[in-house]
Fold:
Amino acid sequence: MSSWRPGDRRPDKAAMLRVDQAGEYGATRIYAGQLAVLRRNAPEAKLVARMAAQEQRHLDRFNRLMAERRVRPTALQPLWNVDGFALGAATALMSEKAALACTEAVETEIDKHYAPQLRQLGSGDPELASDIAEFQADELEHRDTAREAGAAQAVGYPLLTAAIRAGCRVAIGLSKRI
Ligand SMILES: [Fe+2]
Ligand SMILES: [Fe+2]
Structure:
């Protein structure tokens, strides 16, 4: 039974999957960029490696759903490939704490992106909703992990996180449309 009522806007589930897959893809690229720079035995590298594995699982799941439902990926994928990796590498080059601040900023925006999707889906698509709910919980855990590991100690933390969050919002907006 769908929670949709006449007069409600039907959620555009193809656009949802497209932007969600783009976000998870971007996340794998950010963490790959960080892992390319962070010292292998740094505690931050261990945290990031664990999160990267979860992002890959999220991405694999959305890839499968997109294939099943014949949804095309965003045309901006090549951009997120490069931009995601660059963001991860650049923050890790600044410092380990800056890498964590990047995680905190990105995961904050992804959480804010998934929450309204779950409201829009209601009970109309349990398969997609259960994946999104599960991934959202993982993203919140990533955000909290970064916080607890000292993200706020990064030099320029307020400006850095504000800039990254703004960048994420732009990327999310573009991936919905293109
Ligand atoms: Fe994710
Ligand atoms: Fe995440």
Helices lie at 13-37, 43-69, 77-94, 96-121, 126-148, 157-177. The pocket of fe (ii) ion (ligand 1) is lined by residues 24, 27, 55, 58, 135, 138-139 (CB under 6 Å). The CA atoms of residues 1 and 124 lie 7 Å apart.
